[in-house]
Specification:
With 283 residues, this protein is of the alpha/beta class. It has helices spanning 23-32, 61-74, 94-101, 118-124, 129-145, 168-185, 207-215, 236-245, 264-280; strands spanning 7-8, 37-40, 80-88, 108-112, 151-152, 188-192, 220-223, 250-255, 258-263.
């Protein structure tokens, strides 16, 4: 059995107005789940009230950094709490994000196209679900090409917009074009375990898209997208098995915005150790 080696790389704080629990609680659950650390990635502040209902205000940015630092200082020896950010990709916002991301020593910047926020819907929804899906994957590729992000979060999130209109065979050529562009950038992509709890109950992305990513050598990071502390590390063994079945041999994490690659088998063994400990009780 191996020591903890892996991180949960996607989680939030109450500053985003739709999460609960101090980062210290996320840290404590990460320790209990047999992780080596967590990366806090709360939703980035945006200017001029953009999507203000679901993110911290610009003036709360320093408070966010302080909350993460508090959790890092409270962590037991050997467990790390790192500062990250989930930044919204939205055409025209690149200068704001570039300046924001220079304000703190981040370890991992997630890029997200959040189709469901009002501003995105107002700009791009025209009543045609398939056209909306195509636009989403165009933005996914653009987000990789803009050079602002280390990893693209929940990269097929748009399948939750209208599950009855999600036809993978139809959208696949557009996904493949986007993945070709993403692979050329070297940007990683996330498998997000919270997808199991969404309207299309499948990890984001699902097996078929993960297989396309494996064919192109796109590295993958695992995130729980926790909005409550008890979801830290949730579904990670299943995610690892899904990655393996789709043709991936390694999984990645970031430190100081540099990607580190680990064998799936080694990560799985480190998490299974905690599962065995939980089953037989801690002495």
């Amino acid at each position: 059995m191996s020591d903890p080696i892996f991180f949960d790389s996607h989680m939030h704080t109450p500053l985003c107005k739709h999460a609960e629990g101090h980062p210290v609680l996320y840290m404590e659950h990460g320790v209990a789940e047999g992780l080596a650390g967590i990366i806090m990635t709360c939703h980035s502040p945006m200017p001029h009230g953009f999507s203000a209902r679901v993110r911290m205000a610009p003036e709360q940015f320093n408070e966010y950094v302080a909350l993460v630092t508090e959790a890092a200082d409270a962590a037991p020896e050997g467990f790390e709490v790192l500062l990250g950010l989930e930044s919204d990709f939205f055409p025209g916002m690149e200068p704001w994000l570039r300046e924001l991301q220079a304000r703190a020593p981040f370890h991992d910047i997630l890029g997200s196209a959040h189709w469901h926020i009002a501003e995105y819907m107002d700009a791009f929804w025209r009543g045609d679900p398939f056209a909306f899906q195509k636009q989403y994957f165009e933005h996914l590729a653009e987000s990789a090409e803009c050079g602002l992000f280390d990893c693209l979060a929940h990269p097929d999130l748009v399948k939750n917009a209208s599950p009855v209109d999600w036809d993978y065979a139809r959208i696949r050529p557009h996904i493949e074009k986007a993945l070709d562009r993403i692979a050329a950038t070297g940007v990683a992509m996330e498998i997000n375990t919270s997808g199991l709890n969404k309207s299309f109950p499948e990890m984001n992305p699902g097996h078929d898209m993960l297989a396309l990513m494996a064919e192109r050598g796109i590295p993958v990071v695992i995130g729980s997208d926790s909005h409550t502390p008890t979801r830290v590390g949730d579904g990670f063994v299943e995610a690892l098995d899904t990655l393996k079945a789709a043709g991936h041999e390694t999984v990645s994490l970031f430190r100081e915005r540099q990607r580190r690659e680990l064998p799936i088998a080694a990560v799985r063994a480190s998490l299974e150790k905690e599962s065995l400990t939980s089953a037989f009780g801690r002495g």
